[in-house]
Amino acid sequence: KYDVEHGIQAALYAINEKSDNPLHKELAKQFLNNLKTYSLPSLIVTNDYVVGLYNSKSKVISLNPKHAHSDNEFDRAILHELIHHFTVSVINAKDKTPTQERIINSLTAIQKLVRDKISKDPKTKEEFEQFTKDFKTGQELLESQVSAYYGAMDLREFVTMAMTDRAFQQALNDIPFTGEKTLLDRFLELVNNILA
Questions:
Q1: Which of 23, 25, 6, 5 is nearest to 15 (CA)?
Q2: What is the pLDDT of residues 91-122, one digit of tens each?
Q3: Nearest Cα to Cα of residue 163 among 176, 151, 146
Q4: 3-state helix, strand, coil in the chain (%, to 5)
Q5: What pLDDT is stored for residue 129 in this prediction?
Q6: Any residues with CB less than 8 A from the CB of 179 and at least 6 apart, and which?
Q7: Would you give the end-to-end CA distance of the chain in angstroms?
């Protein structure tokens, strides 16, 4: 369905045309509309234990379509790893501009706020601890667990999940920031500034 054997651009065209998820279609469309701006990573199909993985050193996305539980999960994996390609270099850069440094610090503060909320809330503390343990030991994770907790793991995952996962976005939208703004509103402001 996603033509991943023919590279990331073919996969983006397939998501744009065939995905049932409007967010995924829009992200794919935005990437396709800006192909001249972006340097796309290489893509390989593997038998890894995860649906998708990005190697920032080699700039390669590895995908295992057989590991996805649904088309939506596979869409998200492609887009998730592609967003890593674009954001990890900025997040990990040693020579950030002062503006980039300020934005990264603000994103880090939001990610820590979300992590603290999840890890200290009696309703989610135990589930988050189990998720963290299962994740670190390579256990099979449910899509709902990934949506709920993966973004709290670190800044790179926080940024990517907030850009690709509707359930995680809704959770951010439910957390007040200041005045009428939510954490999702603040996140989107920061990402727009760092990618501009």
A1: 25
A2: 888 998 898 899 999 999 999 999 999 999 99
A3: 151
A4: 65, 5, 30
A5: 94
A6: none
A7: 33
Residue from 176, 147, 177, 175 nearest 162 by CA: 147
One-letter identity of residue 29: K
Q: Which residues contact 90 (CB under 8 A, 6 or more apart)?
A: 96, 100, 104, 194, 195
**Distance (Å, whole) CA 12 – CA 14:** 5
Rounded to whole angstroms, the maximal C-alpha distance in the chain is 48
List, for residues 155-175, the tens digit of each pLDDT value. Answer: 999 999 998 888 899 999 999
DSSP-derived 3-state class of residue 51: coil
Strand partners, 45: 63
Ramachandran region, residue 69 (left: φ > 0; alpha: ψ -120 to 50; beta: rest) = alpha
What are the 10-residue block averages of pLDDT along the chain, 196 residues in total? 78 91 88 81 84 90 86 88 88 88 93 93 92 88 87 92 90 91 91 70
